[in-house]
Amino acid sequence: xxxxxxSAIYALADAKDPHHAQxxxxxxxxxxxxxxxxxxxxxxxxxxxxxxKRIGLEAAMHLAADVKAFKVxxxxxATHDEAVGHLEKMGKRGISLVDAVSFVLMRKHGIRTALxxxxxxxxxxFRLYGAG
Length: 132
What we know:
With 132 residues, this protein is α/β, with parallel strands linked by helices. It is built from 7 helices and 5 strands; from the N terminus they run βααβααβααβαβ. 58% of the residues lie in helices and 11% in strands. The protein has a 5-stranded parallel beta sheet, with helices on both faces.
């Protein structure tokens, strides 16, 4: 199972993004290998808002339709609270609550690899898909 981050979702949606070609190739490779992709609803909210703002509503609605292609975990209160605690313990201004939820869920599911272009995943001890 591979975790799917906003940075990859956005790169897939925006042909002008510097990571677009890489994201497209990585997604095709993951699908070819029958890898299951996991994300969470906070990522979807963040991704749709970013895509709608930068590309437009139509592109955001494409994401809403395409979301059925991967597994979405809906963040419950306990996961949210654990992520808030993790965020506070990390004490880093640049880490978002969305990232903290991602780290909590990746650990919960034993996921070591993220399809992402956000180095915070490697700082947290995870591997980026396609890296070494």
